Amino acid sequence: MSISESGGWTSLRVKTLAVIMVTAFILRVVARLSSGSADFWVNEYTFNFELAHNLATGKGFAFDGSPPINRILQYTLKRNTGVTINGAVGLNGLTVKGSSSFDSFNSNPTNNPAGPWLPYSSSIAAANTTVIVPAGSASLGNAAVVISGNLLIGAGVTAPPASQVTGAIVTNFTGVFSLPTYPTAASVSRSYNLGSTLPATLPRSGDLLASDGRYYYFCSGTTIGKVSISSDAKVSIIGTTTNFAVSSKTTFSLVGNAACSIYIDGPVTCTGTVNNGSWAGALQIFTNTTTACSVGSSGQIAACLYAPNADLTATGGGTTGMLIGYFVAKTITTSGHMDFHYDEALAPITLGNPWQLTKWVEFQSKAERDTLGALTNNFLP
Questions:
Q1: Where are the chain's structural domains?
Q2: Core vs surface per residue 361-370: b (16+ CB within 10 A) or e
Q3: pLDDT per residue over 72-102, tens digit each?
């Protein structure tokens, strides 16, 4: 099978998606045939969540030497909105009662997958965050509070003064924010049940990797708190009736290039330090709880926190409290001095299928195929 391409590409992601769609089409067309080829053409890509006028042609050759099979397909992909998170998301509202700020920085300006990652500092702060408020209110309080980036608000949400947003204020935003499917013991090749007792260090000596290169640990009726993830280890912790709580005496840390994903059903609370020795992308916390989550006192958390059913409060902070990464909650309320810093080194989160097929038409007759010449500048035969 060979692939050739044309058209105006705007990003590698668009190219990859088109290749996937064409490949799926060709597999359908040339299945059980000896060989095949495909061309595809993409036009009118728009940033506002749509790919229009995508065309593919496929030719399959049969083993018995009969005439080749030709197919021409037009399809349209529409991106499901709300899957790209570049900052703070308050699904039902954002309320700032103190002097909080929202900005961004890049912890890995060299884009080296092995790091090192820089800690946040005002000297590398940038204005590339995006705050999303699909419903409720977007109240930024006093005029000193500034979103250094863009603000996306849903229909009926009153925008704050333009002076408090350095970038664009986009109205009528809609989005889908769904939790991912939690891992189960049956869905992975190897896992360990820790019960209600978590060791101070994971992975434990002698534990073996699952086939995907991660260590999987299940627990129940416990609190995830003072745990250290060993250097270079990739760990997933899945807990039922389990919360995540860190104080000044229970630091949660990742060593070196370790990474940890946590899937729980309880709240997240932080009055201490969570992962300040590594970058936010190394720690992902998902919770389906409806109980309020909080970051308070001089707490610092560097993570990707996804709690779409829970209220998140960020209070106090002094001069050291901060939330680094991205944070999704039912509502977000801040008081005192607690700043949000989005890390531009994070890959956009994708929950579920970010694309949906909105059009699929096969051009079967010659009259139908002849209409494509003007559209493709005769690129497709």
A1: 2-80+354-376, 88-343
A2: eebeeeeeee
A3: 666 555 554 444 688 999 999 999 988 888 9
